[in-house]
Amino acid sequence: MDMETLLLLRQEVSLLLIALVLLLFEIFANDRNRAGVVSLAIVLFGLHTALGFMDMKEGELFGGMFRTNALIHMFKNILNLGVLIVLLQSAEWVKKELIPQNRGTEFFILMLSSLLGLQFLISSGDFLMFYLGLELSTLPLAALAAFEIYRMRSSEAGIKLILSSALASGITLFGISLLYASSGSIYYAELQGAISENPLTVLAMILFFAGLGFKISLVPFHFWTADVYEGAPIGIASYLSVISKGAAIFILMILFFTVLKPLMHLWENLFYLLSVLTMFLGNLFALRQQNMKRFLAFSSIAQAGFILLGLITGTTLGVATVIYFILIYIFSNLAAFGVVQAISTETGKEQLQDYEGLYRTNPKLSLVMMLGLFSLAGIPPVAGFFGKFFLFTAAASKGYYFLVFLAVVNVTISLYYYLLVVRAMFLRKSEHPIPYFTNTVYMRIGLVITVIGILALGLYSPIYDYIYALSSTLN
Amino acid sequence: MGSEAIIVFFLAGVVLVTGANFLSNLISPKSDSDAKRAPYESGMTTIGPTWVQFKVGYYLFAILFLVFDVEIAFLVPWAVAYKGIGAIAFVEVLIFLFILGLGLLYAWKKGALKWK
C-alpha cells in the first residue's frame, strides 16, 4: 500500500483511526476522566469533517472494488457533516445516560463503524464491496437501536431493525446474484454495457431495489420505521432518518442511473407507483401521531416519497436536485430531531401535547423547531421550499405533470400536521408547560449549525450550482 | 435466457421443498410417546426444567474466540503468499494484528475474561 492509495482512502482511514483512538482511550480511562470521551470524540470527528473538505483525487483501488470521485467525495462530506450534528446533539444524552453505566465509548465507536460502512457503500465499485458496506453500516445500528437496554421498547427496536434488515439484505443479495447470473460480472464498470432487458435482469432489479427500499423506508417496506424510531434512542433515530437513508438513496441513484440505465423504461413506472404510495401513506399516517418520534418517522417516510420524484427523471438535473434535497433534508430533520432530543434528555417528555406552550417557556427551542418544520413542509423563505421546488421542476421537465400535482396535494396535507406542532408550541396554553432550561454547549452548536444550514442553503445559490456541476460527471 | 427458465427455476424450488416435506411425512415411521416429546439431553432423562438460562460468560468467551478465528483465517493465506509480496505485507499484517489485539485488550479491560 503506497501513499497514493492511502490518500484515496483518506476519509475511511481517518474514521478508522478515530475509532481506534477512542478504543485506546477506553482501555486506559479510569472513573475520573471517563466522561472526557464525549469531548474527545466530538473534537476528533469535527477535525475529520473539516479535513474532509480538502480536495481529493479520483481513482480506483483494489482492482476496481473501491472507487472515489468528486461527487462521491462531496457526498461523504455531507454525511460527515450530518453525523457531526447528530453527535453534538447526542452528547448530553451520552453524558447523562451512558457514562454512568460505563458505555459511552461504545456509542461513538459503533456510530463511527456504521458511518465507515456507509462510506464504503457509496464508494463501492462492485457488488461485493457494496454488500460489505451495507452490512457494516447496518449491524452496529441494530446494537445502537437497542442501546437503552433497560427499556423494553429499545430492545424491541433493535430486534425489529435487525430482523427486517436481515430480510432486506437477503433480498438484495438474491437480486445481486441474479444480476451476476445474467451478465457474469459484479463490477459496475463491466455490468454497465452488459445489461440488457430480459426477465432475469428485470427480476434482479426488482429484488435489488426492494432491499434498498427497506433502508429508505419506501412504502411497501416501511413497517419497521415507526416502531424503530420510537424505541431507539433519539440520536439513533435521527441517524437512521437522515444519514443511512441519504446514503442508501445516493447509491441507489448511482446504480440505477448508470448500471441499470438500460431498464429505465421499467423502473420509471416502479418509482412512479412507489412515490405516490409512499407520499400518501406517510402523510396520512403522520396526521394522527401523538408521539413526536413516530410523527417524525412518518414524516421521513413521506419525504422519501418526494425524493423519488427526482430519481424518476434519470437525468443530471435529477441527480443534482436529489443531492440538494438530501442536504437540506439533513439540516431540517436534524433541527426537529435536535429539539426533540433536547427536551427528551432534559424532561423525558416526547408527546405532542407536552409541547403546548413551549414558546412561552423556551422561545429559542421552539423557534428552531419551527424553522425545521417549515423547512420540512417547504414553506418559501427557508431552504426546504427550494429543495422541493427543484425536485418538482426536475420531475416536470420529464413530463410527469400528474405526479407533480399529486406531490403538491401531499405538500398541502403535510402542511397541516407540521403546523399542528407549531400551533401547539405557539398558540396553545398549557397548565404544565415544559419549564425553562438551558442547553449544553454541544447541543447549542448542533442546533445552530442546522439553523444556519436551513437559512443559508435556500438563499446561497452557488451551492446548488456546485452540486449541479459535479452531478454532470455521473452521466 | 427466456422467462421459461425463471418459471422452471421457481417451480423446481416449490416442488423440491413441498415434495421433500410431503415425502418425509409419507414414508417416515411415526411413533408417539411421552419419551419422544421429552427434551433431549445427551441420551439421559433430563433433570429439572430445560428452559434454564445459560451463563452469559460462555457467550463472551465464544465471541472472544472469534478474534483468534478471524486472525488465523487471514494469517494462513498471508503466510502462504508471503514470499511473493514482501515487506509491505508484513507491515500490513502487523496493523491488522494490532487492531485485533486492541479489541482483545478492550474486552479484557471490560472484564469479559473474568468468570463471575
TrEMBL record, chain A:
The keyword NAD applies. Its EC number is 7.1.1.-. The chain crosses the membrane at residues 12-29, 36-54, 74-94, 106-122, 128-149, 161-182, 202-224, 236-258, 270-288, 295-317, 323-344, 365-387, 399-420, 441-463. It is an enzyme of class 7 (translocase). Keywords: Cell membrane, Membrane, NAD, Quinone, Translocase, Transmembrane, Transmembrane helix, Transport. It catalyses: a quinone + NADH + 5 H(+)(in) = a quinol + NAD(+) + 4 H(+)(out). The keyword NAD applies. It is a multi-pass membrane protein. GO terms for cellular component: endomembrane system; plasma membrane. Residues 124-413 form the NADH:quinone oxidoreductase/Mrp antiporter transmembrane domain. This is NADH-quinone oxidoreductase subunit N.
Automatic annotation (TrEMBL), chain B:
Keywords: Cell membrane, Membrane, NAD, Quinone, Translocase, Transmembrane, Transmembrane helix, Transport. It catalyses: a quinone + NADH + 5 H(+)(in) = a quinol + NAD(+) + 4 H(+)(out). The chain crosses the membrane at residues 6-27, 58-79, 85-108. It is a multi-pass membrane protein. One of its GO terms (cellular component) is NADH dehydrogenase complex. GO terms for molecular function: NADH dehydrogenase (quinone) (non-electrogenic) activity; NADH dehydrogenase (ubiquinone) activity; quinone binding. It is found in: Cell membrane; Membrane. Its EC number is 7.1.1.-. InterPro entries: NAD(P)H_OxRDtase_bac/plastid (IPR023043), NADH_UbQ/plastoQ_OxRdtase_su3 (IPR000440), NDAH_ubi_oxred_su3_sf (IPR038430). Its main location: membrane. NDH-1 is composed of 14 different subunits. Subunits NuoA, H, J, K, L, M, N constitute the membrane sector of the complex. NDH-1 shuttles electrons from NADH, via FMN and iron-sulfur (Fe-S) centers, to quinones in the respiratory chain. The immediate electron acceptor for the enzyme in this species is believed to be a menaquinone. Couples the redox reaction to proton translocation (for every two electrons transferred, four hydrogen ions are translocated across the cytoplasmic membrane), and thus conserves the redox energy in a proton gradient. Belongs to the complex I subunit 3 family. This is NADH-quinone oxidoreductase subunit A. It comes from Muriicola jejuensis. The lineage of its organism: Bacteria, Pseudomonadati, Bacteroidota, Flavobacteriia, Flavobacteriales. The gene is ndhC.
